[in-house]
Amino acid sequence: MSSEQKHHPFGPSVMRRRELCPASMRLEEGLPSQTSPDAERGTLIHARVAEMIAEGSAETPSKIEGVTEDINELASMCYDYFLSVTGDRTLPEKYETERRLQYLIGGQVFYFGTADVLILTQYEDGKQSGILIDWKTGYKSVEPAQDNIQGAAYALAAMQEFNLAECEVHFYNPTLREESSYKFKDRGALENHIIGIYNTTQKADIQPVPGDEQCRYCKAFQQATCPAVKKELEVIADTATKIEGGIAKLPDDRLVEFYQKAKIVAKLEGVAEAEIKRRCEESGVCGSYRIKETSGGFEITNIPAAFELADKLTDKEFLDCCKLSESQLKKAWAKSQKEAGRYATQKEAEAAFQQFFAGLRIPKPPKKALVMKEDTKALN
Ligand code: SF4
I want to staple 153 with a disulfide (CB 3.0 to 4.6 A). Which of 12, 13, 166, 350 is the partner? Predict the structure, then answer.
């Protein structure tokens, strides 16, 4: 494998797919990558967090094109998480963003990938400890850190490069407000596990195993070249015509099977729609479709300037037009309390925020998502 490639076919970010569907390594080979609005949103959030970390502040205006208020808020939550990881909410001494990490076997690159944040702490005895952070921006939960092969692969590469006895991996998703961390210690076990996955991908007769998680970003799925997905399409089309008495009458096992197959193929609609839009953008039409552009409306992001201009409104009238960001208020309030000497640290002030504003913090309706039964495997 060449280390000149931008993305490694067995890199940490695709390793979960290789684990769940080893044939994906063969079936993705040579296929082009496709972007999507979600992927572009994720790229912007990552870039904005890296910019905040470089500036040492979440307040400096962004120079990145396309950063909206929402992106800024999500990135600011990541920045906040970054500060909280080291405990004292100050910039760590030694850190890098977008750090390429590679794992070598016999001096050859076995895989490489880019870690969002790498923090190294040097102890007096010369030893170092490592912390890796990976930002997740999607709408689905990822595996907890202790079972997460992507995090394990980054940790293994960092442990090798910096001769670390252990490496802590954090995942943080501002969209879902989910976090998970784990300290990996056993290099040998990680290496064996990862080599085991790689060896399975190399079996010539290995067959694709479709599933929601592994197919989601697979190029063989996006290009509709995977034979297993094509088969699922046929099954779902066939089953849909034969359901007797409707969905409500299906027994649990058939309902779950139908749901899982339908989930996979439903995503093809989005993939096909994105491709039709791309062709329309390129040449005006695609079959009977064309792009119809309608106004996206307007937004005012500069609230202080709007406040100045709206001088005939009372403060209350103006505030009634604004939407409050709970996380930004928490940060600003905690900062002011700390500066006023009421709390020793930002973290203490943030904890106090919850008490202080308790009467105003209305819980949002709980999110109800279907999840599979717990997988009990552990990587380390
Ligand atoms: S589309 Fe799904 S089943 Fe097919 S190769 Fe990719 S991950 Fe495997």
Answer: 12
Span 348-377, pLDDT tens digits: 898 899 999 999 998 888 777 777 765 444
Q: Whose CA is nearest to atom 7 of ligand 1?
A: 215
Distance from the CA of 205 to the center of ligand 1, in angstroms?
A: 15
Q: What tokens does 176 get?
A: 């879902």
Q: What are phi and psi of 109, to 5 degrees?
A: -70, 120
The answer to whether 85 and 133 are in contact (CB under 8 A) is yes
Structure tokens at 162: 């910096």
Nearest-CA residue for atom 2 of ligand 1: 215
Domains in the chain (CATH in brackets) are: 12-201 (3.90.320), 226-286 (no CATH), 321-360 (no CATH)
Q: What is the pLDDT of residues 68-89, one digit of tens each?
A: 988 999 999 999 899 888 766 5
List residues near ligand 1 (CB under 6 A): 17, 21, 23-24, 27, 208-210, 214-215, 218, 220-221, 226, 228-229
Q: Which two tokens stand for residue 354?
A: 């919850």
Here the tokens at position 154 are 């980054």
What are 360's two structure tokens?
């105003």
